[in-house]
Design goal:
By secondary structure, the protein is α/β, with parallel strands linked by helices. It is built from seven helices and nine strands. It catalyses: AMP + diphosphate = 5-phospho-alpha-D-ribose 1-diphosphate + adenine.
Length: about 220
Amino acid sequence: LHAQCSQCLQSPHMDLCHVPAAREKGWYLALMAPNVKGPNYAWLDPSRLYCHPQGLQDCVADLLQPFQGDPIDMVAGIDAMGFILGAATAAVLQKGFLAIRKAGHLCVQTVAQPYTDYSGREKVMEVRTDAISPGLRILLVDQWVETGGTMRAAIELVERLGGVWDHYPHTLVLHVPTGVAAICIEDSEGGQWIRGHYKCSHCVPSRLQPHFDHHQ
């Protein structure tokens, strides 16, 4: 994967046709691009991955693998990049997609939740109140979980509206779990909290996780 990454970074253009012979989990991570614009931006840009047809398909397949057999009624994606993976995941599952928006974009009745994002900025997200009924099983999808603040706010919104979660690892539950999916869930305090309370899936092989945690 390191060799693939170096080769991709040396080229000004992507090869959208090349697919490696051995498509191990996370091979498509090499398609992502590093930050070249400074500290006001995220350290890595995954959007180049979405341009590669096989890369996007395999990424979604890896995210869904832990949830095989679990009943999922709806997929929810977080504004804005979570819309891409969330909608792609919903299409594969043949389920509906719910957009969790930054405040101020929805013209219908909403419920709001303040949060602090990975950069430390105070924000508010909201979701329409008529889409989630009590007991609905929701798979929450975002591009990345760094500090966990954004995902935790989305979880709180879904729970306030009655979505069903398995409060993993507790066992006294009467439903099959859904959970949280992202390309990477970093080993931050917030990331650990989410992993400890909800069923999660991500795409980073364990041998590479420390590099992602340290933004290398």
